[in-house]
User: What shape does this take?
Amino acid sequence: MEFAEFELTKEFRDRFQKALDERDDAFIYSSLEEVNPADITSLLYEFTSEESKYVLNLLSLQVRARIIKDLDPETRKNFLSIYSLEELTEIINQLDSDDAADILNELPIKTSEEIIAMLDPDLKSQVIDLLRYDENVAGGLMAKELIRARANWTVVECIDEIRKQAENETKFYSVWVVDEHDKLLGRVELQKLILTDSKTLVKDIYDDDVTAVETYMEDRDVAEIMRKYDLESVPVVNVQGQLVGRITIDDVVDVITEQAEEERQLMSGITEDVEEDDSLWRNVRARLPWLLIGIFGGMLSARFMGFFEQELAKVTAIAFFVPLIQATGGNVGIQSSGLVVQSLVNPDYMDEGLWKRLTKVFSVALLNGLLLSLIVLASTYVFFNNNKLPIIVSFALFCVVLFSSFVGTITPILINRLGFNPALASGPFITTMSDLLGLTTYFLTVQILI
Amino acid sequence: MEFAEFELTKEFRDRFQKALDERDDAFIYSSLEEVNPADITSLLYEFTSEESKYVLNLLSLQVRARIIKDLDPETRKNFLSIYSLEELTEIINQLDSDDAADILNELPIKTSEEIIAMLDPDLKSQVIDLLRYDENVAGGLMAKELIRARANWTVVECIDEIRKQAENETKFYSVWVVDEHDKLLGRVELQKLILTDSKTLVKDIYDDDVTAVETYMEDRDVAEIMRKYDLESVPVVNVQGQLVGRITIDDVVDVITEQAEEERQLMSGITEDVEEDDSLWRNVRARLPWLLIGIFGGMLSARFMGFFEQELAKVTAIAFFVPLIQATGGNVGIQSSGLVVQSLVNPDYMDEGLWKRLTKVFSVALLNGLLLSLIVLASTYVFFNNNKLPIIVSFALFCVVLFSSFVGTITPILINRLGFNPALASGPFITTMSDLLGLTTYFLTVQILI
Assistant: This one.
C-alpha cells in the first residue's frame, strides 16, 4: 500500500538528471519502479523529449502508454514527434479507444492515417468511429470499451462477456443491456451481478431507469448531468437510441478541471492556454491583446478628458477623483459580471427573465451606491476644501455604481447568447468598459453641476 | 431509459404552484413519479419550506431523504427547521453516514445531539466517529460504509459481506482488504471478484498497490490525488494505518465544483458565498467590503494627486493619462496574479524558486512594457500637441507594467504562504494595489521629467 503522493523535489530531479546524463539505467529503473505512472508523467516535464524517451524505453510498454496518455496535449504533441510510426502504433495499441483517438487527433493527418491502418483490428474500427466526433461533445469524450449484454442472457453469460473484455485493463462498473437492434434498455451494476444467482436472466434484474446522453451533447452538459445525478459512468447513444459508447467519471473530472482553468484565464484577461513555465514569447503574446484593448480605452479616455480641459484648468481638483470613479466602476462591474457568470455556469438555475434579474441588480446597486456616495460625500467634505466638488463626486459615484452594475450584468448575458464563454466578460473587458462609462458619467456631472 | 434532463420550465412551475395551492395530490404525485430526485431538489428551490415539505411527504421516505441530501446547505438549514425531531431522525436514518454527518453538523447542537441518540445503532456509531473531523479534511468527506474483507477469506465470504452491506443502497466499487488489526493491506475490485473462482483466497488476488489518504488530508489534496490517479474511490486510514472509511469520486466532484465557485467569487471581489437570487441585503453585504477598499484606495489617490496640484494646473493634460496608466496597471496586475494562482492551484507544478519565477515574469513584463510604451509614445505624439508629455507617459507606462507584474506575482504567493486562498489576490485587491502604484509611478515621472 502506498501513501498519498510521490513528491518531486529539486534534489531528486537533479540526481535523476545526473543519472540520465550518465545513462545510469539501474538508477533510473530502480527509482521509478515503485512510482505511480501519473507521477512519472509529472517528472517528464522536467526533461527534454530525447531524455524522456530514453526513460520511457526503460519501462514496460503498458506503463509507457499510460504515461504518454497522461501528458498534457501540447507537450505530448512535441514529444511524440521524435517517435517512429511503428513505435507510435505499438503505444497506441495499448490504450483505450478514447485515449487512442485523442492522441491520433493531435498527430499530423498523414501520420495518424498511417498509424490507424496498422492498429489492431478491434481498436482500429473503434478509433475510426470515435474520430468522427468533435472533441467537445459526448461522442468525442466516450470510449467504445463496454460490456454489452442481451436481455435474454443469463448472469453467467454476462460474466463470460466481462471475462472477454477484461484482457485490456479497462475498468467497468456496469453491464449495459441492449435489445437485438442494439438499442439501450438499461443496466446491471456489477454489485448486483455478484449477488444474483448465476442462472437468473438479465431481463429479470436489469434497471431500466438509466440516464443516457446522446453523442452530440456538449461535454460541459455531460459533466453537469454526471455531477447532478452522481453517476460514475453514463451510456452514450446515437439518434436511433443505439448504445455506442460510455463515459466514465474520470474523464468528466478532467473536463470540469479544464473548464475552471479556462474560466480563470478569461477572467484574468489571458487569451491563450498559457502557463507560467511556457516560453517567453507565448507568455507575451497571451497577454498582449487585452493590454492593447486597455491601452486603446486609456487613449480614448485621454481624448475624452481633453474636451474638459477648461473645466480642469479652472478646478484642478476635478482630476483628483478620476481614480476613485474609475476604480469603483471597475470593481462594481467585475462583481456584477462575476455573479452573472456564476449563475450562467450553474445550469441548476432557472431563467428568471431579464427584467426580474435587472430589478434585483438595480436594487443592490441602489443600496450600495447610496452607502458609498454618502461615505465619499462625508470624507471629501472633511479632506477637501471645496463646496461643490463633494456633491459632484458623490453624485457621479452613485451613477457609476448603477451604470456599471447594469453593464456588468448585461454583458455576460449578451456574450453567452452570442455563444461565447461568459467568463470572457468578467475580466479586463468589463474593466475597460466601466472605465469609459465612469469617466463619461463623472465629466457630464462636472459639466452640469459645476 | 430516460434521456438527459428534466427541464424546469416556468409553465411547469406555475402549474405545480397551482396544484400546491389546491392541494392537488394526484397531480403532484403523478408529475413527480418519473422525475429523478436530483431534479425534484432543483424544483423545491421555487417553493416555500411548508410547500416543499408538503410535496416531500407525498414521496417515499427514501426519495425524501435523497432529495434533502441534495439541497444546498444554506437552504437545507432553513428548510429542516420546520421538521420535528422524529421526522428528522426518520430521514437521517435513510442516509449514508457521510451525508448524515453533514446534515447533523448543520443543525443546532442540541437538536443534533437528540437526533443522534435516536439513530439506528450502526449509523449512530458511524456518525459519532465522523463528527470528530473537520468538514474540509478527508475524515469529514469520507463515509463509513464499505466492504471490509480479511486476507484469509475466500471470494464467497467476500460476496456474503457484500450481501450484508447491500441492504442500504450504497454503491461499492471495491472490497478493501485488512489484517487482523484492521490495517489496510490492499483492495479487490468488484470486476476481479466476479471473474475469480469462488474458493480462491482473497490474499491470492488482492492488489497491494493502493493509494490511501490519511484522515487529516485536506479535501482539495484528496481531490487532486483522485483526479491525478483516476480513482473512483479511495480508502481513508488513520495514523495507525487502520482503514476507517472511504471517499468516492462523486463527493470529490462536488469539492472541485465548490472550489471553482469559491475562486470565481474571490476573483470577482465578492466576500460571501452569495448567489444572484439570494436576499437583497446579503447581496449588498457580500459586495461592500471590496468596494470600500476601492473607495479607500480612490481617496488615497485623490490625496496623493493633491500634492501635484501645481503641476496639474500648469499642464492640465497630465490628468488626461491617469485612466490609461491606471487601467494598464490593473490589467497587468490581474494577468500576472491570474497566472500565479493557476500554478499554485495546480499542484503538479514544481516550485522553481522565487527568483527563477521573478526573472521570467520580468522578461515578459519588459517585452510587453516596451511594446506598449512604444505604441503609446507614437499615438500620443500624433494626438496631443506636447513635446514632453509623450515621453513622460510612455516611460511611466513602461515602469507601471514592470511594477504591476511584480506586485501581481508576489501578492498571491504571499497570500498563499499566509495560508489563505491565493485567488483572493486576483480580484479587486490587486486592482487597488496596482492603481496606487501606477499613480505614484506616473506622478514621480512627471515631477522628474517635466
Observations:
- The two ends of chain B are 77 Å apart (CA to CA).
